[in-house]
Amino acid sequence: MAVRSVQFSRMLAPLLVLASAHCSTPPVSVPDADSASADATSSDIVAIDGAEGDAAAGDASVADAAMAPWLEPWAPGPRARPRQGFLWGSATAGYQIEGQLGNTDWAIWESLGRVANNDRADDGPRSYERWMDDVSALRDSGQTAYRFGIEWARLFPTRASWEACRDAMGDMAAKVATCRASASADGKRYYHQLIDALRSSPTRIVPMVTLHHWVMPDYIADPRMEFSTQGWMNNRMRTDMALYAAVVAAEYGEKVDWYVTINEPLVHVLAGYLDGRFPPGRTLEIDGAIRVITNMIYAHAGMYDAIKQFDRTTAESAGPITPVQSSYVSVAHHIRRMYPANPASSNDARAAARADWLNHKLFFEAIVRGNLDANGDGTVAATEPTNDPALRGRVDYLGINYYGMTTIRANAGIPLVGGLPVNEELDRGLPKTDFGWDIFPKGFEEVLVNYGNEYRLPMVITENGLADSRDVNRPRYMLEHLAAMFSAMQRGANIAGYFHWSTIDNFEWVGGYCPHFGLYSVDFTSPMRPRTARPSAMLYRDIIRTGEITDAQLMMAPAYQRPVRICPATAMNPRDAGM
Ligand code: BGC
């Protein structure tokens, strides 16, 4: 038991940082500040320059807001303009919009009553039928790029179809040929139609495809079954995902250059293995979380190599990165601006730096530099992969999803990170979205400058947006975040594209249909699911056309309003509540 609790502390704390963004009340208990002495030594943490121990660790009596850097006035500085070929788009995910994906772990999850209001993805925007309406929305709002998912369960709807692929004989090229033959003709056609329509739109909408956005076929991961062999727990996912990536690259590579292998790997780990809100619904599954992260890192590297091998066609003759390549591959990584909860506490500062490492840098460090902190202890030991040719250089751009900030309070009972996130829903003096998240464009600018300096790679904002059903805050949010991005570009950040989340209102995972993230609203009561442009969609069109945010636009932007209701980010259905 003792060993388990130490492991729990080591992994859970950093990952709860993401819980604070996606779940108002992490349903786990943690040791309190005084219940354990910090067993983290200076060698197994990520130190921050100049940080030294102090007596204020976990001291909630210090008025956090008094010196809060997140409340310092911020205004974007001089702003660069987007380069030629900049990708101006928005994003969706297959499961969140398509419908008719009943053969997935998420559909089972819904049937178990694990989504707020018992909402079902099948009642969503129905893009499997209404995809032309999505293309029209993109076109009408002047967008030049679209990030969407290609669902494994759509291409290989049955176990037999996947096993015919996976177990095919021969070298990789022969296998991929067999796989393309065993894949669903309807599934393949669906994405071909969508991609063709995007590319032939008058605005020429560049496709960016996501290969894994949290959803798996039910024959790969069934949340009703013993979890330890399911989904990402199974080491076979490394080769399965590489094979799937190869099939997609071979099938669509002639028309596609931009790829996201895995969406927000650490959110998947958190919600699936630590706080239990996503399938497989495990809580505090520490060893599992470590295994899943490692499998994802190696799977990403395999997917990268497979795409490079099977997509050798440059679909776009020009683009934001020169010279043009046949593929640009990354993950979409959820990055938050981390702060110490008490800015005066060096222990909080140290904990925030460690959380930053574990949630953000660990994954990038592995796939950019080949340095894998396999046990998450903050260092890459001699026994761990270092500058590993099997991992390094597997990124053509940094995919960054930015939604806001997190504050970390030191807690000596959490050995590795030495702290815990402060609940996102608490009032920190910042405006809020309908999901209770803080609106914080300053952090966006800082994240972009920092990641640009750290990795010296092009970046694409693969997601940024907010839940705002009335569209009262989205215009200002959009202006401020894009101004922050342009300001970061002026300061040297090399940014190739921006994708707003989301194109249309959609199925918000455990939040169901309460939060509305769309530039376009969807009438979920009408069988045709009509999409209607919100004012911010037209604002986006104007920004894309002019390629700038002016001081006058910022000054005239309507002030942020309080949300009329905060959407729950947990199910709280009778079954969940034990009723
Ligand atoms: C995810 C999306 C989700 C959005 C809003 C992102 O973390 O990639 O699938 O809908 O956040 O919660």
Describe the protein's architecture and organization:
There is one protein chain. With 579 residues, the protein is α/β, with parallel strands linked by helices. It has one domain (3-31, 81-556): Alpha-Beta Barrel (TIM Barrel), CATH 3.20.20.80. The chain contains 16 helices and 11 strands. The chain has an 8-stranded parallel barrel with strand order 1-2-3-4-5-6-8-9, surrounded by 7 helices. A two-stranded antiparallel sheet has the order 10-11. Strand 3, helix 9 and strand 4 form a beta-alpha-beta unit. Helix 1 packs across helix 10 and helix 10 (265-274) runs antiparallel to helix 11 (286-310). Mean pLDDT is 88; it is low at 1-63 and 574-579.
Brief synopsis:
The chain is an alpha/beta fold.
Q: What share of the residues lie within helices? A: 25-40%
Largest sheet: 8 strands, parallel, barrel
Return Rg in Å.
Answer: 22 Å
Tell me the CATH superfamily.
Glycosidases
* CATH level-3 fold name: TIM Barrel
CATH architecture: Alpha-Beta Barrel
Give the tally of β-strands: 11
Class based on secondary structure composition and strand pairing: alpha/beta
Strand order of the largest sheet: 1-2-3-4-5-6-8-9
What is the number of helices? 16
Principal-axis shape: globular
Level-1 CATH class name: Alpha Beta
Contiguous uncertain segments of 5+ residues: 1-63, 574-579
- Rounded mean pLDDT is 88
Number of domains: 1
Distance between the ends = 31 Å
How are the SSEs placed, and which strands pair?
Layout (H helix, E strand, L loop, with lengths): L1 H21 L64 E5 L2 H4 L7 H7 L15 H14 L4 E5 L2 H4 L3 H8 L5 H11 L2 H15 L6 E7 L23 H17 L5 E6 L1 H10 L11 H25 L17 E13 L5 H24 L28 E13 L8 E3 L19 H15 L3 E5 L10 H17 L4 E7 L18 E3 L8 E3 L1 H12 L4 H6 L23
The site of beta-D-glucopyranose (BGC) has 11 residues, from loops.
